[in-house]
Specification:
With 289 residues, the protein is an alpha+beta fold. 59% of the residues lie in helices and 12% in strands. It has 2 domains: 90 residues, HAMP domain in histidine kinase (Helicase, Ruva Protein, domain 3); 170 residues, no CATH class. Strands 1-4-3-2 form a 4-stranded antiparallel β-sheet, with helices on both faces. β2 and β3 form a beta hairpin.
Length: 289
C-alpha cells in the first residue's frame, strides 16, 4: 500500500467522523433555529393583528359610524379587519394561518373549534397567561400554534356586542341576534391563533442544512486535492526520484546527477545524505578498480 493511499485513508478516517458530527450538530441547531424563527414570525403576526384591531377601533370606525345604521360595513369590525390583513400577506407567509377564534362570534367564520375553544378557556382560567404555544396532530400532519387572548379592553367593542338593541340595525339584518352578544368589558372572548405546519420549520432547516453540508463537503474535497498535491510535490515525487537514483547507483550507474540540496527540511537532508553516499560509493568503486 502506497504512502499516498495510506495518507488518504488516514485523512478520510479523520474527516468522515468530523462530517458526521458536524452534520448531526448542525441539523439539530438548524431545526431549533427554524422553529424559533417560525415562532418569532407568528408572534409578529399576532402583534401586527393587534395593531390592526386597535387602528380599526380608534381610526376607522369613527369615520364610518354614521353609515352603520343604513349599511353595515364588516371592515369596521376589528376581527374582520385583522383577519383580512393577515390573509393578504405575501406568499412567503402563505403557510401561516391566522384566525380570531371566538366562543360566541358574530361572524360564523370566527367560531372556535374544539381545540381552539380549549385555548380560550385556558386563557379564561388564567388571565395572566400572555401567550400559549404547542404542537398538535392533524390529518394534514403536525402543526405548531401560537395563541394570544382576545380581551375586551375597549368599550367601543361593546357597541356591537353588548345587546341586540344597542347594535346597529344593519348588523342585525346581516347577522341576526342569535350570536355575538352578551360580551362584557375585560372579558376574554377568544384567542388570536397562528397555526403553522411543522413541515415549514423542517423544510427551512433542511434547505439550510443541505446547503451547509454541500459547502462543507466542497471545502473538504478541495482540502483533499490540495493536500494530495502538496504531498505529491513536496514528498512523494522527491522520495520517488531518490529511490530511482538509489536503484541506479546500486547497479553501478554513477552518471546520474546529484540531487539539489536547496531545501532545508528532511527531504533536503535526505538528498544531502544520498549525495554523500553516492560520492563515497563512487570513490570506493574506483579504488577497487
Amino acid at each position: 500500500m502506497g504512502l499516498q493511499v495510506r495518507f488518504n485513508l488516514i485523512l478520510t478516517a479523520i474527516i468522515l467522523p468530523g462530517l458526521i458530527i458536524a452534520g448531526v450538530v448542525s441539523y439539530t441547531l438548524l431545526q431549533r433555529n427554524a422553529r424559533a424563527e417560525v415562532v418569532d414570525i407568528a408572534n409578529l403576526m399576532i402583534a401586527a393583528a393587534q395593531a390592526v384591531r386597535g387602528y380599526t377601533i380608534d381610526e376607522v370606525r369613527p369615520l364610518i359610524a354614521d353609515q352603520m345604521d343604513h349599511n353595515f360595513l364588516p371592515e369596521s369590525v376589528p376581527a374582520y379587519a385583522a383577519t383580512e390583513v393577515m390573509g393578504a400577506l405575501p406568499d412567503f407567509y402563505r403557510d401561516f394561518m391566522y384566525k380570531e377564534a371566538t366562543l360566541n362570534p358574530t361572524n360564523p367564520r370566527d367560531r372556535a373549534t374544539d381545540w381552539e375553544a380549549d385555548l380560550v378557556h385556558a386563557f379564561r382560567n388564567n388571565p395572566n397567561l400572555g401567550t400559549l404555544s404547542g404542537e398538535r396532530s392533524t390529518p394534514r400532519g403536525a402543526f405548531m400554534y401560537i395563541a394570544s387572548p382576545i380581551k375586551i379592553g375597549n368599550e367601543g367593542c361593546l357597541v356591537c356586542h353588548s345587546t341586540p338593541a344597542a347594535a346597529p340595525a344593519s348588523m342585525i339584518e346581516l347577522y341576526g341576534t342569535a350570536n355575538g352578544f352578551g360580551w362584557q368589558l375585560e372579558e376574554i372572548v377568544g384567542a388570536q391563533i397562528v397555526s403553522v405546519p411543522m413541515a415549514v420549520a423542517q423544510q427551512r432547516a433542511q434547505s439550510v442544512f443541505v446547503s451547509f453540508m454541500l459547502s462543507l463537503c466542497a471545502i473538504f474535497l478541495i482540502l483533499y486535492i490540495v493536500l494530495n498535491l502538496v504531498l505529491s510535490r513536496l514528498i512523494l515525487r522527491p522520495v520517488t526520484d531518490l529511490a530511482w537514483a538509489a536503484d541506479e547507483v546500486s547497479t553501478g550507474n554513477f552518471e546520474i546527477e546529484e540531487f539539489p540540496e536547496r531545501r532545508r527540511d528532511e527531504i533536503g537532508h535526505l538528498a544531502a545524505a544520498f549525495n554523500r553516499m553516492r560520492r563515497s560509493l563512487e570513490q570506493a568503486m574506483r579504488m577497487i578498480e
